[in-house]
Design goal:
One of its GO terms (molecular function) is catalytic activity. The protein is mainly alpha-helical. It has eleven helices and five strands, in the order E-H-E-H-H-E-H-E-E-H-H-H-H-H-H-H. The longest helix is centred in the first third of the chain and has 22 residues, at about 40-65. It binds iron/sulfur cluster (SF4). Iron/sulfur cluster (SF4) binds near residues 89 and 188.
Length: about 300
C-alpha cells in the first residue's frame, strides 16, 4: 500500500504534506510518496497560460483582419468549466507515480492492477455527487496498467467523517479549526467565500500574490469575486475582530460531534500517539506559504 500526496507548493496550506505523511505513518502505511508538477507552480501557470491565450487571441484577431490590440483574451484562471489546475497539479503528477509503480512490478510479466483510493464525497458538491463509488480509470490505464478508482467514503456525511476521525484518533489539519470547510489550495477557485476570506486572513502574503496576478492577467481570480474583494473582506473582519482569531484545537470536531467526544479524542490522541509536540508544530507552522510568520498557540 502506498499513500501519495500531490504537493502544490506555496499555494497549498502549509504543513499539509507533513500531516499527510504523519497520518500515513500512524495508519501503518509503510510507503509515503510525494509528487509535484515540474516547473512553474499553479499561480505562475496562470500567468504562463495568460501569455499563450493572449498570443492566440491576437493571432485570431489578425486572421479576421481586426486590430490585435483589442483582442479579447479568455480568462486564464482555472474555473469549474476550465479546471486545468487539477490535472496539471494533481492528477498528472500522481500518474508519474503509477508509471514508477508499474515499472517496479514489471517482473510480473502482465499488466499491473492498481486500486486508486480517493476520499471524494457526494456531500462535497453536485459534481462529486455524480461520481461513481467504483469505476475504471480509463484515462490513467494503458496496456501496462489497469487502474480502478475506488471512493470508499463517497456516501459519507460530514458528521460520519468527523466521527471516524475521532474514532481513529488521527490528527487533522488546524485550518479546519480556523473555520475552513475544505483543505487544498488556500485559494481554490471552487472554494466557498468564507474559506477564501479565511485564507486571506491567515496567509495575507499569498492573497497579495494572487491579487498581483489578477492585475497581470486582467481578470478576477473567480467569476464575480476578485482577490481584491476577498482581501477587503478579510481586512474588514480583521478590523472588527482583531488579528485572526485563534480557536482552540478541536473546535471543528466539537462543532459536529460535541465537546465530550472531542475531549476524549484529544486525550487519547496524546496518550496513544504522543502527538502533543507534533501537532503543536503543525499548528505553529500554519499558513499557505512556507514563509509565514504568524504563530498560533
Ligand atoms: S484545490 Fe481548487 S484551485 Fe487547487 S487544484 Fe484543486 S480545484 Fe484547482
Amino acid at each position: 500500500m502506498v499513500v501519495v500526496h500531490a504537493d502544490l507548493g506555496r499555494v497549498e496550506w502549509a504543513s499539509t504534506r507533513e500531516l499527510a505523511e504523519l497520518q500515513a505513518r500512524l495508519a501503518g502505511v509503510p510507503r509515503f510518496e510525494v509528487v509535484q508538477a515540474k516547473g512553474a507552480d499553479l499561480l505562475d501557470r496562470v500567468e504562463i497560460r495568460y501569455g499563450k491565450l493572449r498570443a492566440k487571441a491576437k493571432e485570431e484577431a489578425r486572421e479576421r483582419g481586426e486590430d490585435p490590440s483589442t483582442a479579447k483574451v479568455a480568462p486564464a484562471w482555472p474555473s469549474s468549466s476550465a479546471r486545468w489546475c487539477t490535472p496539471d497539479a494533481k492528477r498528472g503528477p500522481i500518474r508519474t507515480l503509477y508509471t514508477r509503480l508499474t515499472a517496479e512490478l514489471a517482473h510480473l510479466g502482465r499488466p499491473v492492477r492498481i486500486l486508486e483510493c480517493i476520499g471524494q464525497r457526494a456531500a462535497e458538491s453536485r459534481q462529486r455527487a455524480k461520481l461513481a463509488g467504483v469505476e475504471i480509470n480509463r484515462q490513467a490505464s494503458n496496456g501496462k496498467r489497469h487502474i480502478t478508482t475506488w471512493r470508499p467514503i463517497h456516501g459519507w456525511s460530514d458528521r460520519r467523517v468527523w466521527r471516524e476521525i475521532a474514532r481513529s484518533r488521527l490528527p487533522y489539519h488546524p485550518a479546519y479549526d480556523w473555520g475552513n470547510r475544505r483543505l487544498s489550495c488556500v485559494f481554490c477557485v471552487l472554494g466557498c467565500t468564507s474559506d477564501l476570506v479565511n485564507g486571506a486572513r491567515r496567509v495575507p502574503e499569498l492573497a497579495a500574490a494572487y491579487a498581483r496576478v489578477e492585475i497581470t492577467v486582467g481578470a478576477d481570480f473567480k467569476a464575480g469575486l476578485s482577490m481584491r474583494e476577498i482581501i477587503r473582506r478579510a481586512q474588514v473582519l480583521e478590523a472588527a475582530e482583531g488579528p485572526a482569531a485563534r480557536p482552540p484545537a478541536g473546535t471543528a470536531m466539537a462543532a459536529i460531534v460535541g465537546q465530550a467526544v472531542t475531549a476524549k479524542y484529544r486525550r487519547r490522541q496524546a496518550a496513544v500517539y504522543g502527538l502533543g509536540g507534533l501537532i503543536s508544530r503543525l499548528r505553529r507552522s500554519e499558513g499557505g506559504s512556507h514563509h509565514t510568520n504568524t504563530h498560533y498557540y
